[in-house]
Amino acid sequence: MRWKDLLKETKVFKDLSSEEINLVEKLAKERTYKAGTKVLKEGEPPIEFFICIEGELAIQIDVPGRGAITTRTISDKSIFGWSALANSPRYGASVVTNKDSKVLVFSGTELKKMFEKYPRMGYLVMRNLIDVVSSRLQDVRFGLASCIIDYRKS
What's the predicted TM-score (pTM) here? Predict the structure, then answer.
């Protein structure tokens, strides 16, 4: 199946030219997960980067004394596993499917090699990735503030 239109509509790839989208598309692999599947585990080495094609996934962080807390629910055209592009030593969150889900999977290593070969592409993707990460960090901040408030009430 061709994924060009989906890639163009994904926040991190939206500014790429058609030729650049074609290069990214060649690296994509489709994968399906049943509801309740842990796709990524917080703390594991980041190997893959994902785009949700369809379904629903929960991004969760482990909070000591509280367990897993969902910081964001994502669906179509949303990304996850961005740590694989950012040279992070581990995934900063777990991702669990709330519903049966279909995703595009990319090797973080392959994408980073492509970005080194095509610096313009790498710059645009990483610039757009910063916007996504910033939004996700804001979600975590609000979630943690809520935990503190709940803790102080008890």
Answer: 0.87
